Amino acid sequence: MGSASNAALTAARSHVALRRQLATTPGRLRLAAALLALSAIVFGVVAAHAAGERRHAVQSVDATEPLLVSAVKLSASLSNTHAIAAFSFLRGRPEPAQSRRLYDEEMQQASVGIAKLAREIGTSSGSGPALRRISETMPVYAGLIENARANNRQGFPVGSAYLRKASKTMRNGMLPAARDLYKIEAQNLTTGYRAGVSSWTMLAVVLAGCVMLMLLAWTQMYLARATRRIFNPGLVVATALLLGLVVWIVVAFTVQQSALAEAQGKGSDPVELLTATRILASRAQADESIALAARGGGEEEPRLHDVDRGFQAVTRPIGGLLDQAGAIAGDASAPIDAIDRAYRTYLEAHSRVVKQVRHGDFTKAVELAVDRGADGSPSTKNAGDALDDALDREVGIAQGRFEDAAARADSALDGLAGGIPALTGLCALLALLGVRQRLEEYR
Questions:
Q1: Which long-range contacts (CB under 8 A, 24 or more apart) does 4-9 make?
Q2: Rounded distance, CA 112 to CA 126, Å?
Q3: Does 422 map to a domain?
Q4: Per-residue pLDDT tens for 122-137?
Q5: pTM of the predicted protein model
Q6: What is the pLDDT of residues 147-193, one digit of tens each?
Q7: Is residue 14 part of a domain?
Q8: Per the structure, how many domains does the chain have?
Q9: Is residue 6 part of a domain?
């Protein structure tokens, strides 16, 4: 009981002593100094953490976007590979050397893309199963295409059956795995964008800065009343320095956020839309070629009994994708308009093929799919290649816009990593020196 009473008595005396201390000007100045030091530490930590989060988000976007592009390019390469392989069966026997060369190039590009993604992402990540599925299925697909070619060279109808089986392997195995890969990287990219434009980081900095500014203002007003001096040089300079630092951070965050939004809106989003269009167009070309090679379909391809039915099912989303890309492009929509014209030319070429199919003239339909018409109208192959080239060019331009905007977002944050702790520390030092100068007058 005695020790407990003594402790309580000691605490009560300390409390009284503290109240008496705070009732004096020196005591209040010491409290102000302690609060200024604490607020400086809090502001410095909050601001440095916010700047670090923003920088990390920009770097994450900058690292993830190329992986997303590689994923969509892999899908495009796989689709193009199949379109080229399917088209070569319409050229008759033997297979044209150029078609074989293009097929080998696309297969090589797809293999390089898989190896690159496996190296940069890692097969143990969430993308690993999709990468392994593509790697395991690709040799199966290539073997079916080789069997189809071997039988086609000898004039055996079973070649078309192998081609249809290869098509099924591509559509049901490789392309879905590539889409899964794309979805994972797209989700990672979206997470990076959200972190990079989050308003919470800026709000935290502003709130922490306002708290410290209010403490500086209160300290100066108290000193002005207590000492009859209007300005304290140390506190005035510290206030100006802190205000400048807060403005610098807010401006840097605003510029970074705007540049990152531009990187998404005019860079990665159009890349995704235009590449999706390329994939659909390549698949449409492949479906048309397979249907014509099989003279309208086969037991394994009931939806291709009508050539146009499968084509329309695949290309139906393309118009919407181009509309979205045009809406995003805004003033820079001229390239999108050119792509849209190329797409309409492609549809017109396909409609001429369909017209002959409906008349039962598959020989003429194949000619229109392979060669230009007598009036100079493009074949579906020519029109499809022109559309693919236009899309590929615009994807490259959009990728360039992303890289420029991402670089601006990153450079907007330059200097903050070192500037925040240095200037916050200097601000705190000046404020404490200003308070100490007044405290010394009471000794």
A1: none
A2: 20
A3: yes
A4: 654 567 788 888 888 8
A5: 0.77
A6: 888 887 787 778 778 888 888 888 888 888 888 888 888 888 888 88
A7: no
A8: 1
A9: no
